[in-house]
Design a protein that fits this description.
ATP binding; D-glucose binding; single chain; Phosphotransferase; about 475 residues; ATPase_NBD; alpha/beta; 16 helices; glycolysis
């Protein structure tokens, strides 16, 4: 490639990156409009799930932990990437003894038959029970009790029953749609002669809310920012207009928003978002999640880099073959490149070589790669901040009149491990979306293993042996 051609491509590359940055930037005004639109959709969802892209699912968790719960309970936590099996000894006074095993769910299990998925889960539960056998004394006539955290949309009619509405993230076992997830799990456990009662079924956000409240009485909402994204919060039951059973005595109900499915004409979808959505099995669903979450951020970056390689020779005369492979670039790699503080961006160079088989990249080109990571992550973080603002508005916690500390429990790898994403989210919420005095009272707090611990605590509060 001649020097004139290099200069021409360099100018084109600079122009394209600037245009992409402008397309991905979301102003404060638009963020606030999106938050208001989300509030509107949430209120509609409380009236009728079919009229809103945000389903606002009733969780049947109508009371949250006091922290004084006691006893030995088990928890299953099936997320977008991992399955965790936990033994949780609740010791009162907000303390626990936790033992857990984590397994990465194989891709073929995620997209196979539903019985294969639940057989896999039962196998891991059996393994953990065998390992922990000495730690738990089963009293005569009693079974172990287990809370099941299930990170996918279900329609619940009670605390221990729920039919799968649809898969999200990269799960796709079509024959599971419409089936009761507790029944499917129970059948698989029975096949292995595992004597356990599935006492509670809850979404991971509901689990995180319960787990967060176990440790901190000021927790009123929970947000998951990981492979997928979602939120749950405590709603006043008299604001739930749609039918769901007897109103709870507590006057409160935890709502699983399923806000990752938020769709609005205000959402600033780019050509990259539309292409990603068109290539997804859940076409035109989970649009907000596809702009924000860990499952998709790396793919957005890959698609941008591919266009820059194709149109402005980012990586030389030819387009690297690996760069054309869907989902080859994980968000963990994007995070590593975005956070590279070395003078020669050596981490970026190593990532490009290892993951995309691209070598000998100049410092200037590596800076472009970092910039694209920053552009995609910044948009995702700012959209997340707007979504959290919507939850605060639903709770009436966005105004000064409602004083007192407000804690939002947050879990998920995107928030926990992607430091630039986390910092941008916190800064956007505190400095751009909330008044200064209000922002001092709103705390985003990470709780390790909260969704699993929450499942165990909810299982305890709904124990069939409770007097």
């Amino acid at each position: 490639m001649g020097s004139c051609e290099n200069v021409k491509n360099g100018q084109k590359l600079e122009k394209m990156v600037k245009k992409i940055e402008e397309e991905f930037w979301i102003s404060v005004e638009l963020l606030k409009q999106l938050a208001d639109d989300m509030v509107l959709m949430m209120r509609k969802g409380l009236e009728d799930a079919d009229s809103s892209s945000i389903k606002m699912l009733v969780s049947y968790v109508d009371s949250l932990p006091s922290g004084n719960e006691e006893g030995c309970f088990y928890a299953l936590d099936l997320g977008g990437t991992n399955l965790r099996v936990m033994q949780v000894k609740l010791q009162g006074n907000r303390t626990i003894d936790l033992k857990a095993e984590s397994y990465m769910v194989p891709p073929k299990i995620k997209t196979g038959k539903s019985h294969e998925l639940f057989d896999y889960i039962a196998e891991k539960v059996s393994h953990v029970f065998e390992m922990k056998e000495d730690d738990f004394e089963i009293l005569p006539g009693k079974k172990r009790e287990l809370g099941f955290t299930f990170s996918f949309p279900v329609h619940q009619t009670c605390i221990n029953s729920g039919t799968l509405l649809n898969w999200t993230k990269d799960y796709d076992a079509p024959d599971a749609i419409g089936k009761d997830m507790v029944k499917e799990l129970s059948k698989a456990l029975e096949k292995r002669a595992i004597d356990v009662n599935v006492t509670a079924l809850l979404n991971d956000t509901v689990g995180t809310l319960a787990g967060g409240r176990f440790y901190d009485k000021n927790v009123v909402a929970a947000v998951i920012l990981g492979t997928g994204m979602n939120a749950a919060y405590v709603e006043q039951s008299d604001r739930i207009v749609k039918p769901y059973g007897l109103p709870p005595k507590s006057g409160q109900m935890v709502i699983n928003t399923e806000w990752g499915n938020f769709n609005s004409s205000l959402l600033p979808l780019t050509v990259y978002d539309r292409a990603l959505d068109n290539d997804s099995p859940n076409h035109h669903k989970q649009l907000l999640e596809k702009m924000v979450s860990g499952r998709y951020l790396g793919e957005i970056v890959r698609r941008i880099l591919l266009q820059l390689a194709d149109d402005a020779a980012l990586f030389g005369d030819s387009v690297p073959p690996k760069l054309q492979q869907h989902y080859v670039l994980g968000t963990d790699i994007v995070s590593a490149m975005h956070g590279d503080k070395s003078a020669d961006l050596s981490v970026v160079g190593k990532c490009l070589e290892k993951v995309l088989e691209i070598s000998n990249v100049s410092l200037e080109k590596k800076k472009v790669v970092v910039k694209i990571c920053e552009i995609a992550a910044t948009r995702g973080a700012r959209l997340s901040a707007a979504a959290i603002l919507a939850i605060l508005k639903m709770l009436g916690k966005d105004k000064l009149a409602n004083v007192g500390e407000t804690v939002v429990a947050i879990d998920g790898s995107l928030f926990a491990k992607y430091q630039e994403f986390k910092s941008c989210l916190q800064k956007t919420l505190a400095e751009e979306l909330l008044d200064e005095q209000v922002s001092k009272m709103v705390l985003l707090k990470q709780f390790k293993d909260a969704s699993g611990i929450g499942a165990a605590v909810v299982a305890a509060s709904h124990s069939i042996y409770a007097r």
